[in-house]
Amino acid sequence: MTATADFRQVAQYIGLAICALIMRTALWVFGILWGIVREIVNGVFRVAIGIIVAILSAIAFFGFILWLFTL
Prior knowledge:
Elements: H1 2-69
């Protein structure tokens, strides 16, 4: 009777350890994927902001040149 109970307890601990390992691995993989997605989104926003600033700078530059011609 106690051998069966000990075997069940050991099996339960092994099962819990395997479940914990699977959950830890899944969260680790999710963390890596989340980091990759976050870097891609930040890169896209950085490029978009750079393009907007470049367009506004070009507009300001040509506006300044036109203003100089009116002097």
